[in-house]
């Protein structure tokens, strides 16, 4: 399930890197180097942090309810709430 992470991306693509590997990060499937890189980016990028938080919340909800995946409506609502919370920055 975890694919090798390409390291040739430019600095401007850090957000993309985070978004692509969010689930690996949450599942602790990343190498320590990639996890460190992810953390470093999340420390100063609130959109990515919001995205990560939303994914984590959804993941926990799904795990608790034993459904295969979160309903799109729920997913959208969590995303919207987190976006509002972090946009005032
Ligand atoms: Zn970012």
UniProtKB/TrEMBL annotation:
Gene3D superfamilies: Anti-sigma factor, zinc-finger domain
UniProt keyword annotations, A-Z: Transcription, Transcription regulation
Positions of the Putative zinc-finger domain: 15-48
TM region(s), chain numbering: none
Pfam families for this protein: zf-HC2
The protein, known as: Mycothiol system anti-sigma-R factor
Organism: Xylanimonas allomyrinae
Higher taxonomy: Bacteria, Bacillati, Actinomycetota, Actinomycetes, Micrococcales
């Amino acid at each position: 399930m975890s694919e090798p992470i390409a390291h040739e991306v430019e600095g401007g693509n850090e957000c993309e890197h985070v978004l692509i590997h969010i689930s690996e990060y949450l599942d602790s499937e990343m190498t320590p180097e990639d996890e460190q890189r992810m953390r470093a980016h999340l420390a100063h990028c609130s959109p990515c942090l919001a995205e990560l938080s939303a994914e984590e919340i959804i993941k926990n909800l799904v795990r608790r309810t034993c459904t295969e995946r979160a309903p799109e409506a729920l997913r959208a609502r969590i995303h919207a709430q987190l976006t509002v919370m972090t946009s005032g920055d």
